[in-house]
Structures are given as C-alpha cells and as structure tokens.
Write a structure and sequence with these properties.
CATH superfamily of chain B: Ferritin, core subunit, four-helix bundle
Mean pLDDT of chain A: 76
Order of helices and strands of chain A: HH
Mean pLDDT of chain B: 94
Strand content of chain B: under 5%
Number of helices of chain A: 2
Oligomer: heterodimer
Distance between the termini of chain A: 40 Å
Strand content of chain A: under 5%
Helix content of chain A: 25-40%
CATH architecture of chain B: Up-down Bundle
Shape of chain A: elongated
CATH topology of chain B: Ferritin
Number of strands of chain A: 0
Largest sheet of chain A: none
Number of strands of chain B: 0
Structural class of chain B: mainly alpha
Number of domains of chain A: 1
Helix content of chain B: 55-70%
Chain lengths: 128, 201
C-alpha cells in the first residue's frame, strides 16, 4: 500500500491485515503507512471508549482513502479497500449508536432527544 | 452541505493545564498558517477549479481542515480549563484573558485577530494550487516549531498527527497540480490563467 509520494500511477496495492497497529507496541495507529484495515473480532464486545476509538481509526482510513481516490479515481484496489472500510464503519457506528447515543443528530433513536445529552468530543472525564 | 459528527478526528486527552503553551498553539487556530485559514482557503478556491477531481480534492481537504480546527480548539480548551488567576498571570495568559476570558478566539500567537488576508483566492488554478502546496508546508513548519517548544506528551501526540496530515495533503495537492497541468490545453505552454474565459461577443 502506498499513500505517500507523487507517483505517476496508482501505486496502491490492497493487502488485508491481520491486526491493528497498537499503541502499546509503540506503533502510530494513525500513520497511514501502518494503519491497515482495522480488524477486531467482534466490535459488540468493546466498551464505549474502545468502540469509539475503533470508529475513529476506521474513519481515519476512510478520509485517507477519499483523498487518495480524488487523486487516483481509477484505482480499483483503493476503491475495493474503501468499500470494505465503509461497510465496517457503518456496522461499528450502528453498534455504538444503539448502545451509547447518536454520533450524528439524525441518528437519535427512541423518545428522548439524546443528541444534546452526554459529553461533547472536547470534554474530558469530569463531564461524566 | 455539511454534517457534524460527535467525535474528534484524533483523540485529545490532556492532563495538565498549560496557558503558556496554549498561547503558542493558538496560532494554529487563528494564525497566518492555521487550520481556519487552511479550511477557508480551500473551500473558497474550489469553485473556479477547472476539473471535477480538483474540486473534489479541495472540498475533501477543506472539510478535513474543519476537523483540524476542532482538534486545535480541543487542545486549547483542555490546556486552559479551570485556570486560577495566579496560573493565568504566571503563564502570560493575562493579556488574552482580559479580552476573551477563557473563550476560544481565533488569533495568532502574537495576538493579531484572524484575517482573510492570510489566504489567497486568485481564480487561477495553477496559482491557487501552488499556494496550497506552500500553505501545507508552512503549516508543517509551524507544527515543527510547536514540537520544539512543547514537552507535554499528551499535546505532542496530537500535534504530530496534525503535522503528518500537512505532509499527506502536500502530496495530494501535488497529484492535483500534475493532473491539472495535464488537463490544460497543450498550446498553453506556460500554464497560465486557464480559468479565465471571457465571453465572446
């Protein structure tokens, strides 16, 4: 996989990954050179913080691929990778919103307007 | 049209308040090479781009820069929350505090308010894309300088992420510039003003 460099042709080759880069191992989770398809056995087993971080990682790969595809719209391997990421993102987002509340206003479910409940992204532990 | 998502592009969890550091990092909110300027620059320039790919790239990078405005704002907010008057004075934050209390206000580290004079929108695709390439490098240098001044690992983790995005955007704008040049009329040897097409009478 090659996101960097002003190569003349689409230089990206899709590879599936067996694991997520881990912060414990000193790897940069968000480095596009090491961030492969985040794969976690079952996102239903994650707590709120872990699931949100999983979504943030997936969403980072989405953004990176969108910019790449803007420059190389004919790259089929990038497009396949993009579709895979978007599917995982949809599943993880739905799981999160069912359990912990909406990430976008329109996904507020149930009788209460949960969009304005809970903490905002820049707020830290003290709001819990 | 934009949709807000209730999450940051990268986690920001800063344990220790530090008004002095906030007074430096604020330049990447409202300074000459800050994220607000970046977002405004790209989202303004995109309308007169000659190719759909170039418009797409400016739209998507401009949108990501809005997420970076939020990241820098989150850093500033967490560095300045619950400050005591003594901390404000010791950190040299008193001059900011007197006008804005602890509200976020887009300004440079030297106190100049944000201004559209920081950006250019020339209506010439080559001119604008070359400006964008330079803008990404200027922002990367500013993040390098912040890393030289900061020793807070919680802050530096996010700053390194933002710095890396400047590098990636520089590469992506390089792709767009190359494709845009290829798109131009081959008779237009010097690649100037391809957007300006006065109506024929």
């Amino acid at each position: 996989m090659r996101f960097f460099g002003t190569s003349q042709s689409c230089g990206m080759h899709y590879r599936d990954a067996s694991r997520i880069p881990s912060r414990d191992a000193g790897e940069d989770m968000y480095d596009p050179r090491t961030t492969q398809t985040p794969r976690v056995g079952d996102c239903t087993q994650m707590n709120e913080d872990a699931l949100l971080l999983y979504i943030q990682r997936l969403d980072f790969v989405r953004v990176e691929l969108e910019l790449y595809l803007d420059g190389y719209p004919e790259c089929q391997s990038a497009l396949r990778y993009y579709r895979e990421i978007v599917e995982k993102l949809k599943a993880a987002t739905s799981e999160y919103e069912n359990k912990y509340g909406p990430l976008t206003a329109r996904n507020t479910r149930g009788d209460a307007w949960l969009w304005v409940k809970g903490k905002w992204p820049w707020q830290t532990e003290e709001w819990r | 049209m934009w949709i807000y998502e209730k999450k940051l592009q990268y986690p920001v969890k800063i344990k220790n308040p530090n008004p002095k550091l906030a007074g430096v990092i604020i330049s990447q909110l409202g300074g000459p090479d800050g994220e607000l300027a970046a977002s405004t620059r790209y989202l303004t320039q995109r309308y007169t781009m000659p190719t759909s790919e170039a418009i797409g790239m400016l739209t998507d990078i401009g949108t990501e820069e809005l997420a970076h405005v939020e990241l820098v704002s989150a850093i500033l907010y967490q560095l300045t929350r619950n400050l005591t008057p003594d901390q404000i004075k010791a950190g040299g934050f008193d001059k900011y505090f007197v006008d804005h209390t602890l509200g976020l206000y887009p300004a440079s580290a030297t106190g100049e308010p944000f201004t559209a004079a920081y950006i250019a929108s020339k209506g010439d695709p080559i001119t604008d894309l070359v400006e964008d390439l330079a803008a990404e490098q200027k922002a990367r240098t500013t993040y390098d300088n912040i890393l030289r001044l900061s020793d807070d690992p919680d802050v530096n983790d996010v700053i390194r992420f933002l710095r890396q995005r400047e590098v990636v955007h520089f590469q992506r704008f390089g792709d767009v510039l190359r494709r845009t040049k290829e798109h131009l009329d081959q008779k237009n040897y010097y690649a100037f003003n391809p957007s300006y097409r006065p109506a024929r009478r």
